[in-house]
Amino acid sequence: xxxxxxxxxxxxxxxxxxxxxxxxxxxxxxxxxxxxxxxxxxxxxxxxxxxxxxxxxxxxxxxxxxxxxxxxxxxxxxxxxxxxxxxxxxxxxxxxxxxxxxxxxxxxxxxxxxxxxxxxxxxxxxxxxxxxxxxxxxxxxxxxxxxxxxxxxxxxxxxxxxxxxxxxxxxxxxxxxxxxxxxxxxxxxxxxxxxxxxxxxxxxxxxxxxxxxxxxxxxxxxxxxxxxxxxxxxxxxxxxxxxxxxxxxxxxxxxxxxxxxxxxxxxxxxxxxxxxxxxxxxxxxxxxxxxxxxxxxxxxxxxxxxxxxxxxxxxxxxxxxxxxxxxxxxxxxxxxxxxxxxxxxxxxxxxxxxxxxxxxxxxxxxxxxxxxxxxxxxxxxxxxxxxxxxxxxxxxxxx
Length: 399
Prior knowledge:
Strands 1, 2, 3, 4, 5, 6, 7, 8, 9, 10, 11, 12 and 13 form a 13-stranded mixed beta sheet that branches. By secondary structure, this protein is an alpha/beta fold. Strand 2 (80-84), helix 5 and strand 3 form a beta-alpha-beta unit. The protein has a domain at 1-46. The protein has 14 helices and 13 strands.
């Protein structure tokens, strides 16, 4: 091998290293080839960082931040950071947070799980977030399991495009001293989101959505294109709030996930009232709809599904439709209840003349033979879609 191997070829090789568990080992091996290879491998090694500051692992995280202090230019290599913090933060874990400081090239930040029950501890962690959130290159932020999150901190993320909040409880009033801590980081204007993903329990989503719709919203939703709201409390009120939010951002919305509570669906009566202003969805191209059929409770989501699709103002905009199908109580060849409504759906969907794919994802049937039978039966119920080559059916166990 010549003494100076072309750097362009080395870079091309490292770019093609698989993003899997062996990625780090491969890059570490490359860094041992020579000093030149070490210098070329280092930016790739630091591109994705998982920093665990839980008790018992904080020593390794401290060593990492010490390296950043000794070689500050390494900070510019970090593009994606996953920060795992303890339920109850120690002084050591807080020190690691403080030592991270500004990461000017940070594009993606995920923090989990911050589950704290003492407001003072919560404040100790959150006061070190502004330097990370204020990165001008930060476009993706995911927060999980945070109590009393100071939601106004989102205003720091001036370039944010995708926000994912999973089981986050917010606080509108900054905790003691927080306001002065962040004064130097406020950007002009609010971050203009492209995608919003919410996953909450109980009434958490309703509260969060009401904040985003209010003048106190810490983000600009005027350009929102994707909304995915997963509410696990299965209540009519949560669904109604979900629909109000969709109507609120409907002008620009292109991708949406709608999941009605099973208690909202009744078999043998007219389709339930939709608190969703479907006529406003002028630009929808991708829809994911959850449908549940419960024979033992006489609940069938297909009338609701047909009502939603029939209510769209322009069938020509829809390109992809995904149906998450939970056909409960499926057993043997008894599909009498489940069969009600599929033929109407099969006749309706071909009217969407730009539709490229209808993807049925069936779940929670763990018996392999029954699952195969179920997939075959669904194909038989939708012959028009099958003949047009639009239908794909997939089965998996669990959600």
